């Protein structure tokens, strides 16, 4: 239970059985500063800054999923949406693969979690099965590692590849990836809060 007082107009014990909101660290933090793996500011050079912000967004997704079992990770607490934390992990593995393998590296590999019959397989297939959870994390981490190797090689941010009838630069891809994670981490904030009440940056 939280030591924080409930928000004005919100009783500590909700009659609908909703979890009480609580922070993991002081202030409005999900974790204490000593336990937070995110690096924050202080990087030099545009590529390093973009890579650091993207890394922190990826770590935020992991933090929002931490300590939950398969049932909680697969829970869809906001009907009729099919969003779940597990679905977000699978979706972002697909996004990492699409941009870094298929588009930037030009690899002809099958899409992750997409079929012609169901283009929402990333979310629809996010079921409460420990093996599905383990596979999702393995896949996501493999795609993140591939992307990090690409960035560590020091690509020219202005270099571009064809995409959708136009050309897209490495810089645009990295900025888009930060945007993609930031958007979905907003979803993760709400999903986690609805599961166990835990909130924070």
UniProtKB/TrEMBL annotation:
InterPro entries: DinB/YfiT-like, MST-like. Residues 1-36 are annotated as: Disordered. It holds the Pfam family MST. This is DinB family protein.
